[in-house]
Amino acid sequence: MDDLLKRTVLAPLILILASQTVITMSSYALPVIAPLAAKDMGLAPASIGGLMTVVYLCAMVIGLGSGSLIGRLGATRVFQLLLLLTCFGIAALAAGHPVLAFLGAMLIGVATGPMNPCGSSVLARISPPQWQPLVFSLKQCGTPGGGMLAGALLPALALLYDWRLALMMIPAVGVVMIIVLTFNRPYLDAPERRAVPLSLAGTLRTLKLVISHAELRRYAITGMSFAACQIGIASYLVVFLWEKVAMSPAQAGAVFAAFHVSGIVARIILGFFAGRMISTRALLTLLGLIMAFGIATIILFTPQWPTWSIYGVICALGASANGWVGLFLSEVARLAPKGETATATGGVQFFMYFGIGGGPAIFLAILKTTDGYDGPF
User: Fold this and answer.
1) What pLDDT score was predicted for residue 231?
2) Which residues, in sequence order, are CB contacts of 53 under 8 Å at separation 6+?
């Protein structure tokens, strides 16, 4: 445990976790603030889903160039650039114009793409091997953490003051993080960097690395499938509980929060055991089975189900469908060729984001052609 508590490990982990939380909070700000902001933006609330698609399409493509970007700038400068893009993206959203909202979504997507590859490249280098799954799982708590902060703070601030003022809290925190990173650069940057030019050939090389590497190829397919299920559930869980289970919006929102909280708890607990007491691959397999069982059980929900039993199923589902990412990225970093962690993560992430963008779309397509939610689940 002493090697995990060294400053050279904790400092980068905390810096990356904080940066990732701010960047992720900016993408979650879109659906959270939509009911209050869409009209002022000149958009229909449902069109916010289109902006989220823009975010992940940009992230999917830009993430492929992460290895070259980190090699040229170093991890600190990359994170500062991503935070700066996040600040401009949120400012564009706050301007309240549909064209600027589209531009803001693009900027947030560009900031999201290199986020995981950059963090993975640092943590793979500084993590003690036996604690790497836990370190990666702690880092990935920034994703649900950003979602929780967006859901807890932005609507409350918007109702108290104004939705624009609520959004501008994110750039304020982003600027603070940029300054903090400036004074902690030695903790993140590698002693040596390879100045690889940004090019189409480099982007194609990232995809080729994943497709030609048997293990990474299998993980890419798995990540795409897991991500599609995770985002499909997260996108429709609240409305499903409201329509089919007759929960009030507040009750359904509380269950949705439990989905995220159980994911955070699971990431920490599973990260502690993974690699040391049970193989990470075996844990990911188990999580996939629990995810499948949990989704199948959702179909059986009725208004007559006891509330505690619904929470039990959703917490198990949150632990699996929302708790796998840290372990997954840890395995990708372990399997990546030496010095290629960012490239491998960017390539696998391309397929993950394909699942993130495709999951809700597939769910909606099946929903429209079947009677009720049983078909898509």
Assistant:
1) 81
2) 357
